[in-house]
Design goal:
four-stranded antiparallel sheet
Length: 116
Amino acid sequence: QVQLEESGGGLVQPGGSLRVSCVTSGFTFNSYYMVWVRQAPGKGLEWVSSINTNGLSTYYADSVKGRFTASRDNAKSTLYLQMNNLKPGDTAVHYCNLQKYGTDYWGQGTQVTVSS
């Protein structure tokens, strides 16, 4: 079965960096676009980034463009999100997402907190 497991979140000061990861299994990772989505406290889901199957095309929300970089290692079936120049507004649970045959799959999420 499809499994997605995020890790790498934590507490960081404004201007700092974090890299979150999403280890996947149960599907052919290199055949699917992958997505990062986040949910800030008391708010709805916000799309952050998408990455195509070979990692050469990436797409970002305006709120993170120029600061976040999505990448993937198809040999390890792992998705990454490098987050630089973090801001308090980036505080959220970050999820990786797979859409496969009309079904959404989610990990448990990893908390990113940006605070001084």
